[in-house]
Amino acid sequence: VNLRTKVPVEPLDEERLVDIERAVVRGYADALAKPHRAPSRWLVPALCGAAVAAVVAAVAVVKLRPVREIAPPAVAAAPMRFAATASGARVELGDATVDVAPGAAFTVTRPSCDAAWSSAIASCPAGTTGVLVALDGGTVELSVESRTGRAPLVVRAADVDVVVVGTRFTVERGDAVTVQVTEGVVRVSRGGAEVRVAAGQAWSAPVQIAAGAPMPEPRPIQTAAIAPRDTDVGELAVVGDDGGPALRDRDAVVPTAPTARTKSTRDGGGSGGSSGGSGGEAGSGSSAPASKTAELRRIKVKAPVDVDGDPVRAYTALTTTDRRRDGLYGLAFTYRRLGKRAEALRMLDALKDAKGEELDDVLWMRLQILCEPKIDSACRAAASSYVKRFTGNDRSELANRIANEID
Amino acid sequence: VEVVAVTAAYLEDVVLVDRCLSGESAAARELFRRHRGRVHACLFRVLGGNQDMDDLLQEAFLQVFQSLRGWRAEASLATWIDRVAVRVAYRYLTGRKKRGPMVELVEDEPITGAVDISFGATVGGARRQLARDGVRRLYAVLDELSPAARLAFTLHEIDGRSMAEVADIVGATVTATKLRVWRARRAVEAAAAADPVLREFVADRGGA
Questions:
Q1: Which B-chain residues 24-53 have CB contacts (< 8 A) with chain A?
Q2: Does the ipTM exceed 0.90?
Q3: What is the mean pLDDT of chain A?
């Protein structure tokens, strides 16, 4: 019998997946609240349940013990210490990414907001928890989503607290504590004094200081503490072998395609997600005498494409609607990761032509890009257009709050 | 604090579960997105194409959240989730035995003898047709097996897991698992001996 790979899994379409996801997220709180069942050993008892029950009953009479309460998992409360190997590591803490330089180590705890755990935190609603990254030594780089509506995140190095506003920055703890900010703003707090360190600035102070020493002011960054990982993505739109733009490393950087993939993608044979390679392959293969469109496309591919001039136009000219949507979303995502907000927004604008502007992920990304630096009118407009389209989920709740926030 | 050498993926799991347990629904969504593909594939391979798949996938994840406090971080989260999903599949199979078999919605065309490559059809088309029929007939045979044997067989032979992993997932010994796989394999081979389409599907090494 040789069956591996012979039973192809029929994919669920995006619409159904979204429905299931909604139902799961809706039912998740109730499911958590229910008492959990005993794990795994569930086939054996069916066969020998009666015998075991008899033995257990006998033992119970002799050695009566209360039923053991299932303790909450150790992970919920206990601190977790992360130590990087020689080659460094990347840790995802939900909406925060921590790049750990070789040799660095830190401990993550979720302190309760019922007790004051950082004097630098202004608002931490009682009953919730914050995130405390206590740096034992070495350098970490954090890339953190905006904390609006999220648990406060503080990086602590010795007695220095770095309060995250929604940004990308590094913290180094050696003889001195050094904070470098590449995007957004952080607040650095020490012994009651506080400074704001903005993008392009660094702040540094020795660990050992005399009491009452003045708080150092931030200064421009000289050299980056960790080379940003994303630099190896390189330029995003490059010319493929056949002259068409190819999305290099696309699979490596794009997490998920936007939430809708129409049926025609599957029927059309070219599964948009993975085939973001050369534009030249479009239309090849399927029907024997190439259609006029396919032929036309091939001619276009051969023609020199001025990618530097306008990559979006070049790209959209060469791709089908579905693939274009995936590609543009991927580009927008990557540009955002690289901090090129304007470029990312251009990609989202271009998605309008690909009939992708109404997708959940697309609207949400626009909101994120516009709202990360500051909550202004453009950000609010993005938030209200998100709320107009989607309601009843976490995102829309947050968007609603942003849209209605008073200055 | 103890320092343990662990992979980044493991740490991610630990943190993600922690966030789920602290009531962050964004974390629940992330957990679902991270594991839905594998869980769906596993359910699909165990149960075959199925009109209840949406409900089963949903049920599997709700069960995951219900039992999440029981994850001790000693097994990988993926394996643990698979175990929960397989339990859901098992319950579905035993329930279906009681309810009676489902009505097959797809019309079953009688195919006997060699596969006909008719005018206009390509060899690739015929191969796909053979694969479709083969899958349908294979799962018809699997429907006759006991749920435990079916689980062991599909997880090992179709989902490609090792005997030890299957034993761990279904909560049986490796010996018992091997026995179940062997029994199921014998049943499939017996059915293939009588059914040329199934025989060709099972023996075909070209892949679909």
A1: 24-30, 32-33, 36, 40-41, 44-45, 48-49, 53
A2: no
A3: 66
